[in-house]
Amino acid sequence: MHIGTHTPHTVQDVVRPPLQSVFGTAVPELWLLALMIPLAVIVWGCDELPQMGASDSKRSATPMKHQPMKRWLARWIAVVTAGEAVGFAVPAAIGVLTRDSASAFPLLLVAGAVEGAILGLSQATVLHGQLPYLSKRRWVVLTAAAAMSAYAIGLLPSTLAAWWTSWPLIVQVLFFGAGAVVLLISIGLAQWLELRHHLSGATWWIPATALSWLVGLAVFFAVAPPLWHPDQSPALAVTIGLVAGVGMAFAMAAVTGWAMTVLLRRQTSSVSRAAESRQGRP
């Protein structure tokens, strides 16, 4: 039976007093409910990823435009680095200007969506040269939504610090570890929803994108936090953040560009082998 059918019955068994006395259930504490959110995504991913790979291998891929891959990779790195750097400038400025403000959280979510939209547009523009039937609009919307979700996950620990600091240590580790995984795969998973229709093996884009953001964020935190100080002017703080953001953007663009090049070359090779096989048939 579908999970959507089980869920309402389970909720009633847990929250309704008459059923609580029958089944011996009780409403979980808030930290347990919070832990269910990222764990649900991880469980779903573990179940779906093998099926994603199988469906990718069977799916007919979009016809590709043939371009020299080295030139295409160089263009991807340049355009995506510029797009992410420009996009990141929006939340960087908002974060500094709204520091310790009640409006910081919603404004940063909007800024994250703007960053995602600019990143998605830069990626789709270059990717369209290889996958001409890729929907730029869908790619941009998916990337913007995923970036907003990633910002929400990243901002929740500081926003709800008074809530989770009383949790047991093991729960904190599990919860934030799971949240980190969801944050890293969010953009790649969202983009996969469009990419899977055009590229065989598109499932590999999810871990590749997660790796790219892990490397990019490592570059950012290696540069910016050591240079930030409480008594700095907003202009200097923004400048430091932008410099670190450019480094993050370049690292992310290089890793994703390499991954996409591998996927595109594999698809080109498989198409060529299929064509040769058809020509060799009597």
Structure notes:
Residues 52-64 and 270-281 have low confidence and may be disordered. Helix 3 (30-58) packs parallel to helix 8 (169-195) and helix 5 runs antiparallel to helix 6 (136-159). The chain has ten helices and no strands. It is mostly helical. 80% of the residues lie in helices and 0% in strands. It has helices at 3-15, 17-23, 30-58, 69-97, 104-127, 136-159, 161-164, 169-195, 205-227, 234-280.
List the helices and strands and how they pair.
Layout: H1 3-15, H2 17-23, H3 30-58, H4 69-97, H5 104-127, H6 136-159, H7 161-164, H8 169-195, H9 205-227, H10 234-280
Helix pairs in contact: 1-2, 3-8, 4-5, 4-10, 5-6, 6-8, 8-9, 9-10
Keywords:
mainly alpha; 0% strand
What's the short version?
With 282 residues, the chain is mostly helical. Helix content is 80%, strand content 0%.
Mean pLDDT: 79
Instruction: List segments where confidence is low: pLDDT < 50 over at least 5 consecutive residues.
Output: 52-64, 270-281
What order do the SSEs take from the amino end to the carboxyl end, as H and E? HHHHHHHHHH
Q: Over all CA atoms, what is the radius of gyration?
A: 22 Å
**Biggest beta-sheet profile:** none
Number of helices: 10
Percent range for β-strand residues: under 5%
Termini separation (Å)? Answer: 49 Å
Q: Helix- and strand-based class?
A: mainly alpha
Number of strands: 0
The outline comes out as globular
The helix content, as a percent range, equals: over 70%
